[in-house]
Each structure stands twice: as structure tokens, then as C-alpha cells.
């Protein structure tokens, strides 16, 4: 009952015309970001971050989150019509979505992707509504040792879930942790690695690192000659799937929603992993697995539902625990902090209008996206006709604006360029930049909670094993680490290795 | 022995960690009861060396370095050089001039029509400047020319 009352409060905020407008704007930009190959939700959010400085925290987070989940909707359009994933999470949709389009069922594929995304997104928000407040209340019992244990578990979980190897993921996370130590030490006031550059005293920002690694790094490794594709124009009258297609998509949407939400709770590229796993599950469960790759409806419905549910699930740890599970939620957290709102267990009580307004806006946003994505699909397809050689300079310009305007600092833009180069070489070496960004984000909290724990215990490490919550979290981390190490020693091909092979295979096509 | 991607990644990580340790001399490690400013960075460097060494030892399964394609390198260098030059000029020349030049440079190098590139670059820069300054009330950098 209390949850329902709070949700009503949220709707009273989310349905205010000004908040609704910014939610719509976020969804529209998100769809465009998703449609355009080479521009991810992270670039979109970073570009529009400075624009939110004049807004209150609710409008800002509603708009920025709209970009995130809107991009998951939009990503399917290019996958189905051009066989080019607009988003990494739409890679699996390329296979059967494009095959359906070639069979003249492009409209049906787009409709199933949009409806599946809507159902999964709404399912995710319902679970978020029910789960986040009790989780936040539970997290109020956390002290520095529990936070230290939780952050260690987060990093280990990330390494376990990663489709690249354990040492690679942990190495990237360690680099992120190291970058996070740059700047003034909060406890002693020492300047660390600032090399007399005043701007580095405040540390390295998340936005320049994330935009550089993901946005610029992607552009540097994508020459315009490689971005070619024929845009297939869908006929609006073919948008409605037939009864058999609806029947075939029902269970994959349901399974994708649950699977996606659960994976969304874990650190890492959950929206990407969830779509790969959903595709694998559907192929496994199908009575006609031979149809996969040739236009199977379940091959579109499952992954598209899963990636949307995962993007909603990622908000649970962010809102309830103040922990980002990926670069996008990290930047969203940074946006909230810039507006004076600290995400975490206190958020529900201290800023109920922000928390519940944001949750309610996602119900509204999912309906808006359904309305946007179906009737306006022709309009979005026309955006794809802009030549890439005109498009990527525009993206670079917006990256520069986005990064510079956060602190009006040219040093941040140089950091973005350096990170762009690093991102380019990391792609070449097959290293995933996501753990690096996560390491950077959690570094200050991790360091502070670890040192506070040691000070509290007068230097005894046993503090982590005498407090029940911390002990349980460490035991889970140890179990995951053992499982990963076992696979590494035995060189066994487990589901993560298969996922990596599938990713590599799809990327090559 | 074939040089592989993980060998390069591991070797670079170890070198970077050693370099950071070399410049961390004045940061106190502290004690367990009162950790100093250098404790976490030094521990993380040790972890980087450990993971880097693991990659070096177990790098046999990764892709051979010679198999990595570098056909996009000229594009990357070109984009980076033009963007870096623009960033260097940004605070001096301001948003409109710098971004017009950057957009023109990037599009011109793609072999596109120069007149179209000029019109596009100037129009997009002016539109974006107007959008941010007037509509979004988020002023962009003005240079020595006053705009």
C-alpha cells in the first residue's frame, strides 16, 4: 500500500507537463541514438549532460534515463532493416530480424521488437518498483566493511560474467581503480599523480573517460568506407504481425523479460550479455532450431525483450545501493551527483520526488517509446540515409561539447582524446573497456571504505570476516573466483567462452 | 615464440604499473591501522603486475599480434590529428570557428565535395551554437573574435 502511494506521488511528478516533455525528449534522442550506428547511449547521455545543468534533478534524470532505454528500442531498427546493429545489444537481432525483413516481414519484426521491448521494459519497472525500496532499506545496515565487500563482489562478478578472460577483465578494472586514485587524497590531503596540473587535483572525471573509450574509440576504429548498407523501407500497412507470429513471440518475450532483468542486476555489459543469452536459450528451447538464422520470430522477440529488461534492471543497484553496474549507469549517477542528489540507500527517503518521479517516468517512457517507434519508423529510417562521413564529425563535435561543458575544462577534452586512443588500442587487443570505467567509478568509494574499515578495526583485516553481511559477500566473491579460476585451469569451454565465440562470429559477419 | 595480443597487453600493463610505482615514491604507504595515501595505488599496481604477468604467461590462446588488422589506422590518425588541433585552438578561437574548421577538415579528408563540406560545417556550427546558447541557455566557448 505504501509503495502504491509512493508510486502515485511519482506519477504526479512524472505526468507534470514539463517533466513529461523532458521524458519525451530523452526517448526521442535515445531512439535516434539507438538507430544511428556508431553512437551509443553513453555518447548521447554525455552530450546532453551539460544541457541538464539548468534543470532540476528529476527532469535531468528522467531525460537522461530516457536516452538510455530509448536507445535499446531504437537499436533494433537498423538491425532489422540494414543488418547493422545500432547498438551492441542489438547484434543478435540482426540475424533473424534481417532475415524476416528479406522475407517481406520487416514491419512485423519491427512491431514484435517494439512490443517486446515495451512489455519487458514495463515488467522491469514493476519489479524495480517492488524491489528497490526494500533493498535500499536493507542497505542502510551497511557500514564501510560491507561496502568494501560489496564492491569487491561487484568486481569479481564482473570478471565472472565477462566473455573475455578473467585476468583481462581484472586487469582493466585495476587500471580503472588506479586512475580513480588520481587527485587529492580525501583522508590525508596528499596530491596524487596530478603532475602540477590543477585540474587533476579533483581527479579524472567519468565523462571524459567514458566518452573517450566508448564514443571516440569507436569512431577511430570505424572508417567511413566500412559503413555501407542498403536501407530497407518498411511498409506501414505490414507493421502488424499475423496471429502465428504473435503466438511464436509470446513466450520468448516473457522469458527474455525475466532473464534480462536478472542479468541487468549484475555488473558488466548486462544488456549485451542478456540478448546473447536470450538468443541461445530460445534456440535451445525451440522445436525448430533450424529456423534460427532464417527469420525465426523468437530470435527477434527474445533478445529485444532481454536487452530492454536488462537496461531497467541496471537501475536497481544504482538507485538502491548507489552502485553503478556499467558505464551508462555510472554517468547517470554522476549526473545525479552533479545535481546534488546522492544515489544510494538514502535516496528513497531523502528525495522521494526524484526516486518515485523517475520510476513513474519509466512507465510513461515505455508507452511513449512504443508510440514513437511504430508510427515514426519511416522517419527514423530516413536518418540512416545521412552519409557516415558527415555523421561522425558531428558526433566528435558533440563529444567535445559534452566533455568540455561539464567543468569548462580543456584538460577534460585532452583526457577524452587520450582515452579515445587507449580505447582504439584496447579494441585491437580484444580488451573490454567497461571494467576500466567501472573501476574508475567505484575507486573513490572502494578506497575510502577500505581505509575506514582498517581504521575502525585498528588495522585488523578480520573485520571483514566478523561482520555477517561482509562475510557472506566475501564468500560469494570467493566462490565466483574459484569457479572462474577452475575454468581457467581446466581450459574448459563454458558458457562465457561460447558467448565470446558467438560475439566474435557475429562481429565478423 | 609468436607474439600475441595478450603478451602486448600484459607487458604494457607491467610497464605502466612499474612507471606509476616509480613516481609514487613520496606517497606514504602508512600502516594497516592508519593507511596512507600511497597504500591503495601501490596495492593496485601490484595487482596490475600480477594480472599482466598472468597474461604474459597464459597469452598463447590469444590472437597473434601479426593477425590484427590495422587498415583503419590512417583513418584513426587523421581523425585524431584534426581533433587534437581543434582542441588546441578551441579556447583561443572559440566554438564557431574551431568547430567549423574541424568539421570541414574531417569531411574534406573523406573526399567529399568541398563546397558542400563548407556549407555543412558552417551551418552545423552556427546552428549548434544557437541551440546551446539561446535555446538551452548553456553558452559555448567564445574566442578572441568575440563569438
What descriptors fit this protein?
heterodimer, A: 509 residues, mainly alpha, two-stranded antiparallel sheet, 23 helices, 2 strands, 1% strand, B: mainly alpha, 2 domains, flat
What does this structure look like?
The complex is a heterodimer of chains A (509) and B (147). By secondary structure, chain A is mostly helical. Chain A has one domain. Chain A contains 23 helices and two strands. In chain A, strands 1-2 form a two-stranded antiparallel sheet. In chain A, helix 3 crosses helix 18 (388-407), helix 4 runs antiparallel to helix 14 and helix 6 packs parallel to helix 12 (298-313). Chain A is globular, with a radius of gyration of 22 Å. Chain B has 147 residues and is an all-alpha fold. Chain B folds into two domains: 5-67; 73-135, no CATH class. Helix content of chain B is 65%, strand content 0%. Chain B has helices at residues 5-22, 39-57, 73-109, 114-135. The mean pLDDT of chain B is 91.
Helix/sheet category of chain A = mainly alpha
Oligomer state equals heterodimer
The unreliable regions of chain A are 505-509
**Count of beta strands of chain B:** 0
Distance between the termini of chain A: 51 Å
Radius of gyration of chain A: 22 Å
Short description:
The complex is a heterodimer of chains A (509) and B (147). Chain A is an all-alpha fold. Helices cover 72% and strands 1% of the residues of chain A.
Helix and strand topology:
The complex is a heterodimer of chains A (509) and B (147).
Chain A: H1 2-14, H2 17-35, H3 41-48, H4 57-82, H5 91-102, H6 106-139, H7 144-161, H8 166-179, E1 183-184, E2 191-192, H9 206-220, H10 243-264, H11 270-285, H12 298-313, H13 315-321, H14 327-338, H15 347-350, H16 352-373, H17 377-383, H18 388-407, H19 410-428, H20 434-456, H21 463-466, H22 468-490, H23 495-508
Antiparallel strand pairs in A: 1-2
Helix pairs in contact in A: 1-16, 2-4, 2-16, 3-4, 3-14, 3-18, 4-5, 4-6, 4-12, 4-14, 4-16, 5-6, 5-12, 6-10, 6-12, 6-13, 6-16, 7-8, 7-20, 7-22, 8-20, 9-18, 9-19, 10-11, 10-12, 11-12, 18-19
Chain B: H1 5-22, H2 39-57, H3 73-109, H4 114-135
Helix pairs in contact in B: 1-2, 3-4
